[in-house]
Amino acid sequence: MVRGWIIGNSSGLFFGMFSCIALIVFIFTMRAFDHKVKFRFIYGATALLIAMFGTIIYSTSGYIIVTFLSYILPFLAIGILFLYMYMYAARYNIDSVSRCYKRRCFYADAERHSKNKMAIISMDLNDLKYINDNFGHKAGDIALLTFAEVCRSVKTSKFILYRTGGDEFMMLGIKATKDEAETLIHEIRLKLQETPYTCSFGINMYNPSDDFDDVVVKADQAMYEDKRMYKEMKIKSNPSKDEEYDESLRMFTSNISFLD
Predict the structure, then answer these.
(1) Integer Cα distance of 140 and 137 in angstroms
(2) How confident is the model at residue 70 (pLDDT cuts 50, 70, 90)?
(3) Are 173 and 180 in contact (CB under 8 A)?
(4) What is the residue-wise DSSP string for 46-99?
(5) For the chain, which residues make up each domain, given as ranges?
(6) CATH assignment of 103-254, given 3.20.20.70, 3.30.70.270, 3.30.870.10, 3.40.718.10?
(7) pTM recorded for the entire structure
(8) Other CB atoms closer than 10 Å to residue 256's CB: what's the count?
(9) What angle, 0 to 180 degrees and rounded to 10, lies between the N-to-C axes of helices 10-33 and 37-55?
């Protein structure tokens, strides 16, 4: 005879409640990390269905049976919580625009590899303020992400890319030689020719006996000298070049949709 909904096993109830809480956290995590509404709905609906069927299963005898799923769900919930922590850590360490590691990671990795020789590459994306002021901050974001993607497309696993400021990027070349760093810069310059963007570069080499901050300062100084030469060249250029540059920026930006 059907006796109605009865809560039976208390441990099953505990497991079910724990699972529901974890899955609700999962829903809000996905809501925060995925801006597309349809995926929010899918994540939420899936999580709620799992929680519902795993927590309460009605039997003809009138008792709620704590089934296999009710015991599996807590482990799933724990896994989801670990995933949440991993995603939070990634959000904490990854720049949302360029998808590069942040400044804190640059110094943390430098400390971790301080017993190795390293190539320090200082990079500054040229004309970012001009792009932001004249074409909008979305165009500036496109410039930053495009530059980062160019670097990622040509660098080897020895080199780690960071965004350390507004238009500033750094690379650590773990156990890399100066020749390898110079070759990488050359490849980045070549690849950038497919875009409207340019970048100024500076290199300095770190040895375990060196003061890391001093090495970074010298890499920055080399980059600033490269930027000075770029600005001098731009001043001497034909004014029509500026119009061509603006048009190339406008066309490139209008054809890019990966930030939508």
Answers:
(1) 5
(2) low
(3) yes
(4) HHHHHHHHHH--B-TTSPBP--HHHHHHHHHHHHHHHHHHHHHHHHHHB-TTT-
(5) 10-93, 103-254
(6) 3.30.70.270
(7) 0.69
(8) 17
(9) 180
